[in-house]
Write a structure and sequence with these properties.
Chain lengths: 224, 78
């Protein structure tokens, strides 16, 4: 199963994403944002970073990169599409996911491990997890404060180590402590913390493995 | 032709930067009820017909300069 990991000018988490997906058995490959054909891929990951230097708004310019038409095509065909951090912001700007990511409530760049609780499991990000699972994953963002429709499908929320969801454990002011969402079909999902950085116990935690395993398990041979 | 676009976050969308600036102003002793941080974008565009130019810039706003999910915009031509 092959995954295109898209690289925009300013993307900086692409190698971690390729390594993590490879570790889970997928054949992941870097794809430059000017590529216009993703027909050989079974899924897409938009990794973290600062595409186009976050000019104007995070994700605003990346949305118009040539490769995005292909990402939209794969998403429409039901292929798994995952955005991580800046990738989340890009998917929102591209209207492949609802809502927007605002500056963090306290105007601080947050770079520390957080806990998230798995909510809906009918998404490419959470399929292999169980609702209520608490995962420790590093958060690394300035615009992670989600605002969106009240009926958005929530894949994970920020929580305490015991799974408690309340404002005390909400790191960035995100609506309903939302950390990850999906579209109605469940094949397009995005998460603000970085699962690709939570793959090895020796590096802090393995909380990201279940989530990326879900994504890899969701891949089926190219349908488009 | 010079066109000025004012991009404003809609009133129902949080503005953490504005909230922080309001707090700082109050700390300085100023009586401030609220602050919103807008974005002014100044464009130089070709064209003689203000209505046509405004329509073109409105399209730029819809596609790129503003995010319809959270922003309103106002265009001033000339």
């Amino acid at each position: 199963m092959s995954v295109a990991v898209i690289v925009f000018p300013g993307t900086n988490c692409e190698h971690d994403a390729v390594w993590a997906l490879g570790d889970l058995g997928a054949d992941a490959e870097l794809v430059w944002h000017r590529e216009t054909d993703l027909s050989s891929f079974d899924g897409v990951v938009l990794p973290g970073g600062f595409a186009h230097g976050d000019a104007l708004r995070t994700g605003a310019i990346a949305r118009f990169s040539p490769v995005m038409a292909e990402v939209e095509r794969l998403a429409a065909a039901g292929a798994p599409v995952l955005g991580i951090c800046n990738g989340f912001q890009i998917l929102c700007e591209a209207h492949l996911l609802p809502g927007v990511l605002l500056e963090n409530r306290d105007l601080r760049f947050i770079c520390r491990p957080v806990h998230v609780r798995v909510e809906e499991t009918d998404t490419v990000l959470t399929r292999s997890a169980t609702a209520g699972d608490v995962l420790e994953i590093p958060l690394n963002s300035y615009e992670g404060n989600y605002r969106g429709p009240t009926d958005v499908r929530v894949a994970a929320r920020y929580c305490g180590p015991d799974g408690t969801v309340d404002e005390e454990w909400n790191p960035n002011g995100s609506m309903g402590s939302i950390a990850a969402i999906a579209n109605d079909r469940g094949n397009v999902a995005a998460i603000m913390p970085h699962p690709e950085r939570a793959m090895e116990a020796v590096l802090g935690s393995t909380g990201g493995r279940t989530l990326l395993q879900s994504f890899v398990d969701s891949l089926t041979p190219a349908r488009v | 032709m010079r066109v000025t676009v004012n991009v404003r976050r809609r009133p129902d969308i949080a503005d953490p930067q504005g909230t922080t600036v309001a707090r700082a102003l109050r700390d300085l002793g100023f009586d401030v009820d609220g602050v919103r941080m807008n974005k002014e974008i100044v464009l130089e565009v070709d064209g003689d017909d203000p209505a046509e130019v405004e329509a073109r810039v409105a399209e730029m706003c819809t596609q790129l300069l503003a995010n319809p999910v959270m922003d309103d915009f106002e265009i001033t031509v000339g």
